[in-house]
Amino acid sequence: MAAARESLLDAAFAALARRPWSAVRMVEVAAAAGVSRQTLYNEFGGKDGLARALVRREADGYLAGVERALAAGGGTWERLTAIAEWTATAARDNALVRALLTGCWSERLPAPPRASASPVPAQRRAEKPLPSPPDLVRMVRDRAVTALSGPGTGPAATVELARSCELVVRLALSCVAAPPGRGGVAELVRALAPRPTV
Questions:
Q1: Is residue 198 part of a domain?
Q2: Average pLDDT, integer, range 33-61
């Protein structure tokens, strides 16, 4: 069923790219995924359940991209730059990620999903509340601090690292609203990096 679930989510995401969520029909999503409409209802319970699962998947995908940026290697500021570039790109290219990060849900998107007590077991797994924009910023910040802190990192350095990471994520989000000029978000992040002392 995991393959059917992913196919349904892919089909729903593709349908959302073509038309507003209010115009997306469950029968079309099921047909595009190559499964019966009953399978879709068994998996998600209904259109609201499908929307919740779709938004949850996009949130998880964004956070997986943050993990990849942190694992790419390089120094602290190179990895913070990678997080900023990923955040700006993901928010620019994916309307659901942009809505999750900014809290601005357009009429084309599903209404911000709320958890409900679904009778469908597979749907209950996606029922935990979605992170708010401040929650996502905190999650990214905390993951970065964990990945970038070494064994000898003291409390003051940890606080400074957390502050720098949060600033970088918020800078990336500002670039979604007002795209930067030449050099992009990377140039802006590099301007924040501390200068080596001579």
A1: no
A2: 94
